[in-house]
Amino acid sequence: MAKDSKTLKRKAAEAGGWIAAKRIAKSIPYVGTVFAIGLVGYDIKKKGVVKGVINSGLDAIPFVGLGKNAIEFFTGDFLPDKEPKNNGKKRS
């Protein structure tokens, strides 16, 4: 009967994979913060200055932003978008 023992190379690869996975998992909150900061201009354009900054600020806080976005996924925006400008045109 043959043993299914792992080679030293295989063990090293698995250990390295776990170390890389842990590092990536630890960096996820910071990556979300960078995205939120990068999207401040878009939020301000869509929601207005005050609501856009508040929305981006909440999104930039690592676990608060996660909770806010999870709730908004089911209920819709906490801070609604501003009304679009008509530029003097009437809609039919």
Question: Cα distance, first to last residue?
Answer: 81 Å
Helicity range of the residues? Answer: over 70%
Structural class: mainly alpha
Biggest pleated-sheet summary = none
Name the helix and strand elements from N-terminus to C-terminus, one letter apiece: HHHH
From the alpha carbons, calculate the radius of gyration and give it in angstroms: 23 Å
Poorly predicted ranges (pLDDT <50, ≥5 residues)?
A: none
Mean pLDDT: 83
Q: Total number of helical segments?
A: 4
Strand fraction equals under 5%
Question: Could you characterize what this model shows?
Answer:
The protein has a domain at 27-75. The protein has helices at residues 8-38, 40-47, 49-60, 62-75. The N and C termini lie far apart (81 Å). It contains 4 helices and no strands. It has 92 residues and is mostly helical. Helices cover 71% and strands 0% of the residues.
Question: Which terms summarize this structure?
Answer:
92 residues, 4 helices, 71% helix
Q: Topology, please?
A:
Elements (H helix, E strand, L loop, with lengths): L7 H31 L1 H8 L1 H12 L1 H14 L17
Helix pairs in contact: 1-3, 2-3, 3-4
Give me a quick take on this structure.
It is built from four helices and no strands. The protein has 92 residues and is an all-alpha fold.
